[in-house]
Design a protein that fits this description.
The protein is α/β, with parallel strands linked by helices. 32% of the residues lie in helices and 14% in strands. It has one domain (26-101): 3-Layer(aba) Sandwich (Rossmann fold), CATH 3.40.50. The chain contains four helices and five strands, in the order ββαβαβαβα.
Amino acid sequence: MQAAGYKIIPVNPHIAETLGEKSYPSLLAIPVDVAQKIDLVDVFRRSEYVGEIVEQAIQLKTPAIWLQEGVINEPAAQKARKAGIFVVMDRCVLKEHRARFC
């Protein structure tokens, strides 16, 4: 997705940097000026961790959450939708981007 021009902000408490970008331990650890520009939270975590991520995305007023293939958490998705967040679940963002734009 970086090659397509998208800015990636990694969130992983176990690494300091990836993809040439500083990594943050959580969504809420991202500086406010950067977090306000987030258009999409792309989740690569197991389904049981999605609830916590949704809670943080709601606090940040993130407009969209994308749960990658195999990541399914309907209660968390419903909570996000009730908060006005657009949700995609169990799909690969790269595959979808390629199908539409490449």
